[in-house]
Sequence to fold (443 residues):
Amino acid sequence: MKNFIQTLCICLLITGNVFGQQEKGIIGADNWLYNWTEFNPKSQNYGEPNQILAGNITEDTKLTKRNVYLLSGSVFITNNATLTIEPGTVIIGDYQSKASLTITKGAKIIADGIETDPIIFTSNRSVKRAGDWGGIIILGDAPTTKFGSGSVASYYPKLDATTYANSNYGGENLASNSGILRYVRIEYAGKRIKNAGYFNGLLLASVGNETVLENIMISHCAGNSFEILGGETYLHKAVSYKTNSNDFKFNFGAQCMLSNSLAIRSPYVSNSAGARCLMINSYDNKEEIDFSKKGTTVVAKNLTLITDSDDLTSAIEQGLVKEAVYVGHNASLEMNKSVISGFNPAVLFEDKIKVNQENLEKIKFTDMYFNNCNGNIFVENNMNNEDLENWYGNSAFFNVYSKGDNSETFIDLNNKRRPDYRLRINKIIASNEVDPAINRIDN
Fold:
């Protein structure tokens, strides 16, 4: 009987550990990336456009699957109109005219695809590259920490009074509804703008919590894949694949819950300034911010953040890999049950953040899986992270550490048709103690 009880306890412990690890990173009984995502969009032929979208759309409009649409120039949905897009519809952004689609404050987009028939935004160039066209901008009337209204006017090459009026965002309605983006792919966006940087794949500015944002994939973007400015948003099953800039960027008091989402970085496509999976700031210039309002707050659960490299050590030595997560001053992050694999280091705090009780309670990491990172959690420009490692390495936080190759850690990364980035449970050997060999950044 004693042996039976001991055996039963061991089995329960093993089972508990397996289920505990299964909960980390992206989760699902099945591979939810299947059918609607595309990790090799250059191989796809979406057909030639037979309809043109241009100028201001001032009344309710529906795009249908039987047509292929060319998005030409700066297209605005205005006058509280709703743009409805059928599942399976293809919209092609024009390279020459720096095409972009903006849903202005009060207007809506209903892009509600289905798993087997996603809605696709892509490039019209024969040889497609990151930054071929602009991207999608959604402007709402939820709060922002900026004084007055925010504006995205700098994104438009030809600015006039009408354009300027259509570029404003911000208000007091947390529950505002800008529509639905579900089962949507956005490819090769992020056009460069003279003296203003890059478009993003999807920019959400003061978007409210009634807006549905699920199953969105942004691939090969020259700017940020997802940028969230202010507002209150819920992003679920979001995928960022090999973007040149940040995968998810938050600023100006954004209140966001990001769940069951994936970011795949390549060291060979990041811009010269470097880029992160999560870039969390509360401001650019302190003078433009109302600090009586709540700073940027991100709750991130079940994320998988990966650097895709055949030679990670060499990529780090060449300075091609940065931290996965950057947290700025006055911002809060609660990250739980997530995987960070192959970064330099895993997390970096802005040097303005003092390591004290107040700030450590604003930046939480629990049930994390840190794998194959060149250091774990540091303050910018400070090589001594002993205090941080002692805090986050406490067994009460259930964080674990490992040094496995990506191919051993995830189920099937190399399957071009159906990659599976869930954890490969039976190959994981993890510890809740920090290995000194990975507890530093090498110069």
Notes: The mean pLDDT is 89.
